[in-house]
Fold this protein.
Amino acid sequence: MSPGEKALPSKRNKLKLLIVDDMPENIEIVEAFLSVELYDVITACSGKEALLKVKEEKPDLILLDILIPDMSGYEVCKIIKDDPDTQFIQVLMLTALSELQDRIKGIEAGADDFLIKPINRLELKTRVKSLLRVKCMHDRLVADRDSLEIKNRIQSILTAIIPTLLQAISHEEKKIAINQMTGLVEKTLLDMYRFENREMDFAYAGDVCTEVMNQLGGNFSSIMSENENSWIIRGTKCPWREEEARKNPILCTLTRKIFSNIVLKVDSDFSLEARKTIGNKNDCCEFIIKVNDAHVFG
């Protein structure tokens, strides 16, 4: 299964369908047409009961008849779609009404799709699967967004906390802490990038350094130097938050340590030199990847 692909629901994690119809025989037909073993099916026979079930059960898809007691299916659909907590639940309206005006009313209420009674089994199954696929894609996007927001919040917290922690410990303890943090980054890098067979590749080392900083929230780029015997990594936005970096240059040490580890992974004859850092009041960060003096560049 590829990354980000949602597994088929298991018996413990079925997609949930709400069937709303005041005619028990209609509910039985829909249940018979669907492969109900794939879904967790719940039912309601009126508009008010449907809204209660939506709130309690949080279904993934609602199969909603238009002609139901208490209120019409249009009204139920509009209430669901107007509520930020339920607006992304898919609504498939089931109706014996086939006039264009009826469909327009359903669209205005926010319905995602329609089926005209009498229901065709294959069409029902196809539309249900299609709407559930849309719901699953939306849920994945929301999960990814939430994960990114959490990551950004954690990054902001760490950016604020790390300088304070490092200021409170001795010089030797700072070295140990930075080594531990860069060790964690290095372990992650080993999982993400292939460093073997990269001998004498300035560009690869520069690109990896750039990508790591940009994933952390910085704005870095890398280019070859004018004399073509070194590679320049330049950053105009600090991943540790610029105001914090200017007050706490120790964060620049963390960046330099991460870069050094990456560069050495690519080629042990490479070295890294820090020319500028935002933490030292420069307008940007600038690091140079070059060959050690002891090595003759061929």
Notes: Residues 1-12, 294-298 have pLDDT under 50 and may be disordered. The first helix runs from residue 24 to 33. The two ends are 45 Å apart (CA to CA).
